[in-house]
Design a protein that fits this description.
Elements: E1 23-26, H1 37-44, H2 49-57, E2 62-63, E3 80-83, E4 98-102, E5 106-111, H3 128-136, E6 142-143, E7 152-158, H4 164-172, E8 177-185, E9 194-201, E10 210-212, E11 219-229, E12 232-239, H5 246-253, E13 282-290, E14 297-301, H6 307-310, H7 312-317
Parallel strand pairs: 7-13
Antiparallel strand pairs: 1-3, 2-3, 4-5, 5-7, 6-7, 8-12, 8-13, 9-10, 9-11, 11-12, 13-14
Length: 320
Amino acid sequence: MRRRKRPAPPPSPLPQREGIDAVRVRMPEGAGEGGTVRDHLVARLPAEATVIDRMIDRGAFVTADGRPVTADSPYVVGGSVWFHRELAPEVPVPFPVEVVYRDEHIVIADKPHFLATTPRGSHVTETVLARLRRDLGLERLSPAHRLDRLTAGLVLFVVRPEERGRYQTLFRDRRVTKEYEAVAAYDPAVELPVTLRGRIEKVPGRLAAFEVPDGEPNAESTIELAEHRGGLGRYRLTPHTGRTHQLRLHMNRAGLPILGDPLFPYETERVADDDFRRPLQLLSRTLEFTDPVTGREHRFVSGRRLAAWSSYEEWERGPA
């Protein structure tokens, strides 16, 4: 039996702000009939009633036709209102996002270390998605997958929302060939290449993902040594699945924790937003796939270099 497609959400009457969409608040049945929109907002939003009232007074909430919500606007079942969250100041990430490829369907970005892929938590405007939407004028741009904030390299974005599912399916069905590069200590006692499998879980409130002993495997990675010099190794990593922190966990399990990793082997405090001294030495080097919309064969290569391999002394010092 085929699943029904969910209807597309109504378009926002508010333009994006700094590449960030307005928030939509729905008015479902059984939530506030007979009351006001103001009462529903006070019940739904994590803000004090006085804050909601001030926002209503300045016209911050609007209905689908763009009209401001007033204090006595009636609750309409099935309706929606939109508003922009007040964004806290963020520390600018002083590294550019490079665009490797762009056509009418996709954008391939080469992201720097320390820049989140999409808005999450305290990182909202300082994200690859927000920057690309602003810089390229593509308000409907969306990611097909994500990289950790501390990992650099290639990310695929989709221009048209209606095509996003087709590109996401590539990753779900493992029809994208991905290759990463990492720098870690060189240990001749570690036998490589090796393919590691296991079960990885990630729970809310805990920074690091973790492996479950004897769990049903859901993660697989191949680790190869590309070259070594001066006590360091440059490793070629091929993830066959896409679990959170997968490559970092598997490198640590192999006895080769990646340089600059604040989580493995020791789960430390989160890297401060203004600390750009020693980036995680992990890079999404290549993406290769057949475009599900155009049929083109794509192979993209990151232009970035891992600092510890280029100059260990410079990496140790960090940015000036």
